[in-house]
Structure formats: C-alpha cells, structure tokens
Amino acid sequence: MTKYEIMGGKPLHGTITISGAKNAAVAIIPAALLVDGVCRIENIPQISDVSLLLQMLQELGAEVRTVNRSTVDIDCSHIRNRQVPYELARKIRASYYLVGALLGRFGWAEVPLPGGCDLGGRPIDQHVKGFVAMGAQVDVHSGLICARVPEGRVAGGSVYLDMVSVGATMNIMLAAALASGMTVIENAAKEPHIVDLANFLNSMGANIMGAGTDVIKIRGVKRLRGGTYSIIPDQIEAGTYMAAVVAAGGDVLIQNVIPKHLDCITAKLLEMGVAVEELDDAVRVRRTGPIGRTNVKTMPYPGFPTDMQPQIAAALCLATGTSVLTEGVFDSRYRYVDEFRRMGAHIQVDGKVAVIEGVPYLTGAPVHACDLRAGAAMVIAGLAARGVTEVDGIHHIERGYEDLVGKLAGVGADIRCITTPDNDTQTQVG
Ligand code: EPZ
User: Fold this and answer.
1) What is the per-residue pLDDT for 424?
2) Is the pLDDT of residue 429 over 70?
3) In this model, does residue 349 exceed pLDDT 80?
4) What is the number of other CB atoms lying within 10 angstroms of the CB of residue 278?
5) What local confidence, expressed as pLDDT, does residue 84 receive?
6) CATH classification for the domain delimited by 2-19+233-428, as one of 3.40.50.880, 2.120.10.30, 3.40.50.300, 3.65.10.10
7) For the residues 230-243, what does the mean pLDDT come to?
8) Cα separation, 337 vs 37, whole angstroms
9) Is 117 labeled as catalytic in the residue annotation?
10) Continuous H helices in 259-409
11) 429/73: higher pLDDT
12) Does 397 contact ligand 1 (Cβ within 6 A)?
C-alpha cells in the first residue's frame, strides 16, 4: 500500500507553482469532442482524473498526442465509437460531461453514470432538465445515461436551474454549442472554470455570452474548428497551499495564480490574522503568530468554495478560540472529521454545521483520505501536527493534485511517499 508519511512541525518557506485547474480541465477535455480539428490544450494538470478522461476519449476513437508535460493535442475529427467504457466512466464524476459533448456533437449519447467523491446525494436531475429543454429524450437505465434527439441535432432551449450547479451549467453549455438555435441558462454557476470552458469553446468558434454571470446564452454554430487554449490556474490547489501555510506556519510565495479567483479565501485568511499579499500572478502567505478563529459558510462562487471546506477546517482546528463551519453546497462533507479526531481535534458536527474548538496542537496519527479534498486536509493537519502522520487512500488525493509531495517538500515539508506491505493488518476493534 502506498501512503504519505509526514513528520509535522516544520514551517513552510519558499515558492510553490500552481498547475492548471482540475475542474476546468475535466470539462475542456470532453469539449474537444465537439471540435472538428486538432485542439492543443496547454497547462493541463498531471492528475489521474485527466489521464482517465484522455483514456476515455481514446476509447471513443480520438487521437491524443502528448506534446509536453502539460500540453496535449486532441483530434476528435474521426470519432467512430460512441460507447464509453463502463469501468472507466464510473471512476470519476466528470465523465458525465461526455453526455453533453456527445449529445451536442452527434445528437446521441450513452454514458455510464459517473462516480466521484462521496459527498452525499449527487443527483443529475438538473443536467437532464437542460438536455430535455433542448429537445432530448433522456433515460437512465442499466447504469447508463441515455440521451438522444429524434431530429438528430439538439435545438436551442431555455432552462432555469433549480439550484446553482457547476456540472449542470457546464454540461448544458457543451450540449448547446452546436445546437440549431439559442440556449439560455438561468441561475447558472459562475465559477472560474465555467468561464474557462466558455472561453475554450469560443476560441474554437462557439458563440457563448455571459459566462461568469448567472445568465449564459449559447447561440449554436454549425462547426467548431481546432485551435490552441491554455487552462487557467487551479483556484482550489492554490487555496489548499494557502491553508497549509496557515496550519504549518511560514512564508510561502504561491505563484501562477489569478488573485481575483482567491478573493474569498484571502478574505478569510486575513480574518484569521494571516498576512496575504497579492501580486500580479501570485500571492504571498505568511503566518508567524497565533491563528485567529473565524466562521465560514461555503457557497457557490464567489462565496467561499466548498472544495476548500476540509482544508480550512484543518487550519481552524489550531485556532485560538471556537469557529463555526457551515457547508452550504453538499449534503454530507464532514466524513473527514473522525480522522481529525484521531489527531486530537475537537470538532462537533450537527447536520451541515461543524463547531471547531481550537486546540494548542494536533498529534500525528495514521489517518485515511476519504475523498479528494479531505485527503488534502489530512496532509495539512499532518504538516502542523507533532510527530508522524501517515495518510493512506492517497489515490483520492492524486485525482486532483499534481505532485503534492514534491511541491510541499520543495518548501521544506518533511513528507514522502512510502510503500508498506499490503498485509499490514489493522486491528479492527468493535
Ligand atoms: C463540481 O461538482 C465539482 N466537480 C466539485 O469538485 C465541486 O465541489 C462542485 O462542482 C461545486 O463547486 C467537478 O467539477 C468535476 P454541483 P458537481 O452540480 O458538478 C446539487 C472537487 O473536490 N445538484 O455544483 O457535482 C448537488 O447535489 C469536486 O474538485 C443537484 O441536486 O457539483 C450539490 O448539492 C468535489 N442536481 C449542489 O447541487 C443536479 O443535477 C451543487 O452541485 C446537480 C447538482
């Protein structure tokens, strides 16, 4: 079994460079299915979700060529197969973007239901609502999402989303790009990766207006040609390292970011008494004194990101005072709390609210990464804890963080990836 081993208590000093945004990349790669030509995509993060999606496109007949570590050429001009492999698709959430892309390209899609982090109920009813508004018949059976348009090409349509949904907003945009008419999405999500997908599609010849606001209009076009596009930096990866500096202490320059995308995270860190300096494409984070308590409520962008909830909780475990954390997006995003308690954290959870009573220190322990962001939070807690922390389940973390160990070791963290015999028996009690 591979796991991370962390010797905590070392403040972080130096520079970390942020990679391309995971949640932009996992929508932009499927979007290449809409393009009749070669898409050169730059600043792609080296993470397993991206590798899986590129593999799915190859299974559909796309030509994928690695240009360098963070650049690929994707040519979907000669797609022949339209069956997405079941075992690949169910490994990640973002496979559902293949529905919108295949429906938009061919008027037909049959894609296995997605997997992804267990955050409570994650229905796709809003995605379906959008596809139906564009004239599609959608049926979910045998573990598949089956969508088809009798006329062979999606029409335009209007949809008012019942709740702000990143996935539904992006999926409807994908299905609408080549539609025969105008599509309007109201109550749309406004995350930076929504804008990035719209910019990618427009750079290939689409006609999308209003991305980044809550009303997005997509005027369908006949064809998308090839081109080159560079993915934005990852807002959540940057925020994760910002929270790591808060918990472990130190002074780190986090470069290749768009500071505007970090506004809400920066505001929270300032409330906690942390020094955050904004530069053109970087933020400098310094924490030398005590960590102040604060309250956090996660909301759709531009609110505090739900994908930063476990990470800020790790820092608040060490705050002087009691903080209240409210999860405003998902039903159940506190599965990591029991793992923090193993390290001496004092957290009480009631529904969507967690009350975090700061403690003077955490102690290292063997802990489990139960999902992508919870895993990152365990690493953050380990960096601050006294003694050794071992984090297993690191495959979750490697879905969304490129070279996390290398980036943290580069700023002085004592962290390494180790392999232990799989017969390492854990005494189960109770
Ligand atoms: C995307 O998930 C991200 N995943 C998540 O990031 C992120 O936490 C989330 O957006 C919110 O920002 C990807 O982009 C691959 P939603 P998604 O649709 O699209 C409910 C990470 O750590 N809902 O915005 O699934 C849903 O249950 C991952 O990088 C419906 O009820 O999120 C949730 O409560 C974790 N019906 C809320 O809306 C629907 O049809 C927001 O979900 C769709 C969503």
Assistant:
1) 53
2) no
3) yes
4) 14
5) 87
6) 3.65.10.10
7) 98
8) 47
9) yes
10) 263-271, 309-316, 337-342, 372-384, 394-397, 404-409
11) 73
12) no
The predicted pLDDT at position 423 comes to 60
Q: H or E segment at 304?
A: none
Range from 117-131, 202-216, 348-362 carrying the lowest mean pLDDT: 117-131
Range(s) of the chain covered by CATH 3.65.10.10: 2-19+233-428, 22-230
CA of 366 to the centre of ligand 1 (A): 29
Judge if the beta carbon of residue 127 lies within 6 A of ligand 1: yes
Residues in the chain: 430
183 lines ligand 1 (CB under 6 A): no
d(CA 107, CA 28): 19
Q: How far is Cα 32 from Cα 37, in angstroms, rounded to an integer? A: 9
Of 228, 222, 304, the closest CA to residue 261 belongs to 304
Ligand 1 pocket mutation pick from 98, 165, 190 by most atoms within 8 angstroms of CB: 165
Token representation of residue 330: 């998902």
Angstrom CA distances, 71 to 40, 66, 231, 268, stand at 7, 6, 10, 34
Tens digit of pLDDT for each residue in 377-400? 999 999 999 999 999 999 999 999
Atom from ligand 1 closest to the CA of residue 193: 14
**What pLDDT, on the 0 to 100 scale, is given for residue 209?**
98
Distance in Å, CA 124 to ligand 1 centroid? 9
Q: What residues contact 240, with CB distance under 8 A and at least 6 apart?
A: 308, 311, 373, 376, 380, 401
The DSSP symbol for 2 reads E
- Any idea what the Cα angle at residue 39 is, between residues 33 and 41, rounded to 5°? 110
User: Cα–Cα distance between 27 and 101 in angstroms, integer?
Assistant: 9
DSSP-assigned letters across all residues of 387-405: SEEEEE-HHHHTTT-TTHH
CATH superfamily label, 22-230: Enolpyruvate transferase domain (3.65.10.10)
Does the Cβ of 150 fall within 6 Å of ligand 1?
Answer: no
Q: What's the one-letter identity of residue 208? A: I
Q: pLDDT grade, residue 401 (50/70/90)?
A: very high
State the pLDDT at residue 430: 37
